[in-house]
Each structure stands twice: as structure tokens, then as C-alpha cells.
Protein: DUF721 domain-containing protein
Organism: Prosthecobacter debontii
Amino acid sequence: MSNRFPTFAQRRRHALIAAWRGVEDGPLQNLPTFSAADLVGKIVAEAGIGDRLKLEEILSAWKEIVGDFLFQHSRPDSIQRGVLMVRVLQPTIHHALAMERPRILKRLQAKLKNLGIKDIRLKHG
């Protein structure tokens, strides 16, 4: 992070806002500058984009692991505290996934080691 001096437009904007508020126009502080690398992590965390990126990774792995038919009838919905929540459309699909859950979990853990998936929970909807 380095300091820079305010531009003419910034000084003018500051003076206008100060006049509108009815306060004296004091000196404008040197403005800190940030590199994009400093801000990206914070922005991703605040916007929740990181979770969405994780879900996209899981979604692509899910199709490969469970196959086309089960993929069409189930979708990973969210991941919270290492538990992957999967929405299932039909009771028969729920049963099929429940019977294969240990195998699916092992394959997901092997494929997506960095996500820390500990368990899979199935829910209708």
C-alpha cells in the first residue's frame, strides 16, 4: 500500500461536499492506494463468491461421479461446515444415492481434496 496525492477532481469534489455540508474545507488527506491483489481475497469473501466457486467445482465433479441419470435428478445445493447438501427430486433417487453415499463421498473427497467434504446429506425438493 502506498500513498498518493489527490487529483484535481478529487479536491474539487471534496470542496463541493464540504460546502454542501456547511463545514470548512480542510486539507484532503493523502489517499491510500491498494493493489488488486490486496483486495480480491476480501471482496471474494464478502460477496460469498468463494462458496459459489466451490459449488461449481462440486457440480462438475458430481456429474462425473454419479453419472448422467442421477445427475439429472439431483443437484449439490450448498456446502456448510464440510457437509454437502444435495437436493433430490424423487424418493427412488434418494434411495439410490443413499445406498451409494459412502462410495460417492470417498470419490468426492479424492477428487476435491481442498474442499474438505466430510459428509453428504440428501434432502427432497
